Amino acid sequence: MSGMDRPSSTPFRFPVAARYAGMESSPLKDIFALAAKEGVTSFAGGIPDRELFDLGPVQEAYDWVLTHRGHRALQYGVSEGEAELREQAARRISRTLPTDASQIRVTSGSQEGLFVVAEALLEPGDVVLVESPTYLAAVQAFAVHGARMVGVDTDEEGVIPEALEEAIRTHHPRMVYLIPTFQNPTGRTMGVLRRRQVAEVLQRSDVPLIEDDPYGELSFTGSTWAPIASLPGMGERTLLLNSMSKLMSPGVRIGWIRAEGPILDTLAVAKAAISMQSSVVDQLTVARYLETADLDAHVRTVAEVYRERRDAMARAIAPILPEGAHVTHPDGGMFLWAALGEGYDAQTMLADAVEAGVAYLPGWSFFAEHADRSTMRLSFVTHSPAVIEEAIASLGEVIARHPR
Amino acid sequence: MSGMDRPSSTPFRFPVAARYAGMESSPLKDIFALAAKEGVTSFAGGIPDRELFDLGPVQEAYDWVLTHRGHRALQYGVSEGEAELREQAARRISRTLPTDASQIRVTSGSQEGLFVVAEALLEPGDVVLVESPTYLAAVQAFAVHGARMVGVDTDEEGVIPEALEEAIRTHHPRMVYLIPTFQNPTGRTMGVLRRRQVAEVLQRSDVPLIEDDPYGELSFTGSTWAPIASLPGMGERTLLLNSMSKLMSPGVRIGWIRAEGPILDTLAVAKAAISMQSSVVDQLTVARYLETADLDAHVRTVAEVYRERRDAMARAIAPILPEGAHVTHPDGGMFLWAALGEGYDAQTMLADAVEAGVAYLPGWSFFAEHADRSTMRLSFVTHSPAVIEEAIASLGEVIARHPR
Question: Residue B157 and residue B188: Cα distance in Å, rounded?
Fold first, then answer.
């Protein structure tokens, strides 16, 4: 029990699992760091405007829970989620897809939902088919489980059914991950016919669908889209993820997964292993909020503001884009997606942009493979039209200084 | 795009990852189900008495946060955790181990802390050395990462240094997981000399320590134990986990990991992949509570009540145990551990016990290997002395009907 084998001046190094080797940071962490930089108008993060939070009713809901359900709110709950919240979630989903509270699994935001799904389904070496481009934090949750992402070609309506079928035949994927409505990062939406075609491909090939729908209610046209999970035969083969982050609050970290059958048990066991259960205080508060506040009216108000900001950004960005560039015009959600075209590198340009007081998210990180480095994602939700116009004008000057 | 390859009457089955195959439930979920059964006095779960929650000050803290930090509380935070909470955590740890806020990573309870550690460190096939017996939910978080648990022999003071050194030599473990103070499930505590001996073994062999300390402040004697992490040379090679679950509220789901050096970055990246960040509302509330309420006084009050209950259980259980049985007498925490002795099977006996209106947790599930099936864990914190005495008397009748 005496003497060391090595000099104490050598600092100890923890062994790091291969899945995190060389990852001193994560793409999303870098977004948040960038967004926080003094004097920069950031379009990088998908960060709601805090002035639009429904703070009064949320505070009332916390107060009610702590006053009337205080002892229960501070006590252990269950891994599946609190009954009241599961009922409210089922009620909302049932507008388009009949759902019972027993089919809901509560998660600490959609990120934990994606991680729970990956835990439950993925083996190292599995292929996950994703839209090209797709949401980078989902990719990360899948990648740390040893999955290999394969991007499927998309057009203005999202994933192309023939490309999906071909990719399934070639890669034998464990699952397909799609964000059909107001997609991140492109803002694109799959129409009804396209949804049916995709559903047919998935049923024919028996590949499960992970349907991520955090933005679907943020519609600028009044139209909303029923999830693919609601199409005939799809409910049983889809894990549908919703989140309160974009509708009520990202800081409260509450989302849920809707599923059918035995996988519900596996999801609960995985959730228990990961974090036992989500905050009972937050769960009961969100349930109370959904029961008593008018979330639909709140979302309409928020969407109206977001629509004005999309208009402002769309107007401002059109004249500053180089010839041959392309930009999406989303009917909802939070993001515009611009492709400057061959010769441009949005990553290289970012330092200049930040110098000029404007930040965006370079698009390359959203591609599983064959990245288009001329792309950028711009969130239009955080700033007022005036701020958007000024910052996009600055971005225009930066682009003009970076000829292809 | 037409026709299915298989009849639609065959229900779809999701593929389940091997790590969860056959796990339709988890040991901890079963505890909670058992604990909830009508008419049963349950000693199974480590469930705080809700009447002892510091509800008023907790509610005040939520109210203050939502009134004065409302917009920030509802907004995205950072994966590392909110600054105020990290400062409060560092302040508490610094009583025995100098710690800066930058060395704290916030987690959604200790369970997520253990999962984050497993994510960051473990490769499939790695060996984790654990106390025999040890905390079963930690084992689960390690096991789903493909680790193999090897139990190290313990005595009245926890893990035996010579056995630990021998196990390290034999198994080349990735890490050692210990609960040195008021251990779960045994209630045992490592003395100061034992801690030094264990620290020497770990430094000599260069194996990192995962030190789980959720109960350490719940002392019945006035004495508290500095963590092994505070011994010379151990801070840099230890991940120290604390939780607010047993001190303030399990429903709020806030804990933290204390670490040094580059592993802090990996822990933050893993946390981001798992759940992005913990509830900002809950984090700021716990920070406010730690800043303004007197947690130490609250914990003293709780510990005084728990001490009376330990005394009640110790008094009641002594006469009902068969000859040759053994029961621990913890100086803090939540659990008594009883070994009935050869021939008894606590698992088999449980159905009879529940029938007689009393539940405990069979001890076999706490062993990584070579389970002593005559053991049981009894939490003494949930019920009053009178209820404890009556239920333990009923347990005595059940034991008497189950001769070895």
Answer: 6
CB contact under 8 A, A274 and B274: yes
Count Cβ neighbours within 10 Å for each residue of A27-41 and write b for 16 or more, e otherwise: bbbebbebbeeeebb
ipTM: 0.96
Number of domains in chain B: 2
Average pLDDT over chain A reads: 94
Question: Is B45–A76 a contact, with Cβ atoms under 8 angstroms apart?
Answer: yes
Partners of B272 on chain A (C-beta within 8 Å) are 26, 28-29, 111, 137, 140
Q: Do B137 and A276 count as a contact with CB atoms less than 8 A apart?
A: yes
- Side-chain-facing half-sphere of B226: CA atoms under 13 Å: 17
Give per-residue pLDDT as tens, A373-387: 999 999 999 999 999
**Does B7 have pLDDT greater than 60?**
no
Q: Is the pLDDT of residue A26 over 70?
A: no
A387 and A241 within one domain: no
Lookup result for tokens 């559903």: A199
Are A110 and B275 spatial neighbours (Cβ–Cβ below 8 Å)?
no
Give the confidence band of B26 by pLDDT, cuts at 50, 70, 90: low
Residues B345 and B377 in one domain: yes
Quick one: pLDDT band at residue A32, thresholds 50, 70, 90? low
The residue-averaged pLDDT of B365-385 equals 94
B266: nearest CA in chain A? A24
Fill in the amino acid letter for A37.
K
Per cent of chain A over pLDDT 90 is 90
- Can you list the positions of beta strands (E) in A111-195? 127-131, 148-152, 154-155, 158-159, 175-178
DSSP state of A42: E
Whether residues B29 and A203 touch (CB distance < 8 A) is answered with: no
**Are residue B115 and residue B217 in the same domain, yes or no?**
yes
pLDDT score, position A3:
40
Examine the domain organization and report whether A225 and A368 are in the same domain. Answer: no
Q: Before A133, cis peptide (omega within 30)?
A: yes
According to the model, what pLDDT value does residue A31 have? 59
A104-107/A255-258 β-pairing: antiparallel
Q: b/e for A238-261, b at 16 or more Cβ within 10 A?
A: bbbbbbbbbbbbbbbbbbbbbbbe
pTM of the shown model = 0.96
Q: Which of residues 205-264 of B touch A (CB under 8 A)?
A: 206, 208, 233, 236-237, 239, 248-253, 261-263
Q: Does A104 touch chain B (CB under 8 A)?
A: no
Do B308 and B265 fall into the same domain? no
Q: Is the peptide bond before B185 cis (omega within 30 degrees of 0)?
A: yes
Which pair of tokens denotes residue B347? Answer: 């698992």
**Beta-bridge mates of residue A361:** A377
Taking the C-alpha atoms of residue A185 and residue A196, their distance in angstroms, rounded to an integer, is 23
Using CB atoms, pick whichever of B28, B75, B273 lies closest to residue A250: B75
The answer to whether residue B12 sits within a structural domain is: no
Same domain, B260 and B236: yes
Q: What is the CATH number of the domain that holds A43?
A: 3.90.1150.10
B123 touches chain A (CB under 8 A): yes
- Tell me which H or E stretch contains A375: strand A375-379
User: CB neighbours of A400 closer than 8 A, spacing ≥ 6?
Assistant: A320
Does B153 score more than 60 pLDDT?
yes
Which amino acid, A48?
Answer: P
For residue B49, CA distances in Å to A201, B44, B302 come to: 53, 13, 9
For residues B282 and B386, state if they share a domain.
no
What pLDDT, on a 0 to 100 scale, did the predictor assign at position A2? 40
The helix-helix angle for B27-35 and A263-275 (nearest 10°) equals 90
Residue B89, pLDDT > 80, answer yes
Split at pLDDT 50, 70, 90, the class of A27 is: low
